Amino acid sequence: MKSYQLVAADAPLELVESETPTPQGTEVLVKVTACGVCHSDLHFWHGFYDLGDGTKMTLEDRNISLPFTMGHEPVGEVLAYGPDVETDIKIGETRMVFPWTGCGDCARCDEGNEQDCANVAPLGVRRPGGYADHIIVPHPRYLVNIDGVDPHYACTLACAGVTAFSAIKKARAIAADDKLVIIGAGGVGLTGVGIAADYIENDMIVVDIDEEKLAAAREAGADHTINPKRENASEQIAKLTTAGAGTVVDFVGSTETAALGMEVLRRGGTYVLVGLYGGRLNFPTLALPTRDIALRGSYVGNLGEMHELMELVKAGKVDPIPVSARPMSEVTQTLQDLEDGRIIGRVVVVPDGV
Ligand SMILES: [Zn+2]
Ligand SMILES: [Zn+2]
Prior knowledge:
alpha/beta; globular; single chain; 2 domains; Rossmann fold; 354 residues; 6-stranded parallel β-sheet; Quinone Oxidoreductase, Chain A, domain 1; binds zinc ion
C-alpha cells in the first residue's frame, strides 16, 4: 500500500510503500477512495498546538511519534474483514469511516462517547489515517452508511460536519426568546450555520472578521452578521438581544473570541467553545456564579451524532459546503493552501488510480 506520511514537522509528507495490512480480530480493511484535508492537520504538520501563553503543546507531549499517516475524513470501499467481524455490510460497499475511535471497552465507550475515552485513539491522529490508499478500521460499527450522499461531500462530515453538529446540538437547549450567536464562519463554523438554520429555530447572529465569510453565512441562514473590525460586536449583540445571548458557539477559540463570547452572554447563558485556534480564557471566576453562566467545550462528536447528522444530510436539511478533489500526491500543497486561506469549503485528496 501507499501512504503519505508525516516524517518531520513542516516537511512535505513522504510517499511510503509498505505491505497492505491484513485485518485482525474485528478489524476492517478499507480501500480509501477519498480523504478530506482538515484544518486541524496543520497542528500536526507544524508539530504543536498554541497554548496561548507563549507555550506550545508538542506531538511528543501528546505521545504521538513520527512517522505518521494523518487524514481523518476517509471514505472508501470495504475490502476485507477480520475473522471476528459480524456485520451486514457487504464487501465492496462504499462507506464513510467514523474516525473518533475509543478503546471500545470502557464506560465512556459503552455509553457511546468514544471521543471522551481516556484512551481515545482516532484514525489519522493516533492510528494510521486516510492519506493512504488503504486504512485499517478497528470495528465495522465505524463504517457509516452514505447511500445517496456524494462520497466526497461525505468525507467532510467525518470531522467538520460532526464537530459542527455536536456543538450546535449542545446549543439546542436555548430558550424560545433567545438568539444564538455563532463566532467564526470558516469551514466548520459555516457548516454549523448551515446546520443551525434548520436545526434551531431561534434567530442566529454570526460574527466574523471576513466580509466574504459573513456573506456566505447570510446565504447559509444567518439572520444578522457582525464584523468586529467595522463595528463594536458586543454593542451590536446587546442591541439585537434583550439581555444578551442565550448561547454562544465559538468556532474560533482565540483569546479575543472567548472574551467576546463570555461578555455577550445573558444571565444563565451558555458558552460553547469548539475552535482550536488557541489562546487563554481570562475573566473573573465570579462571572460564572454571579451571572449563573455555563462554560463548556465540544470536541468532535460521537457516533450517534454522526448517524443523526447523516440522516439530516440525507433528508436535505444541511446545506452542503463546496468540495473539490485533488490527487493525493498534492496533499502537502493542499495543507499549504489551507494554511494560506486559499481554500473555499473543503478539498479531498484521492489516491492514485482511483
Ligand atoms: Zn478535522
Ligand atoms: Zn474507551
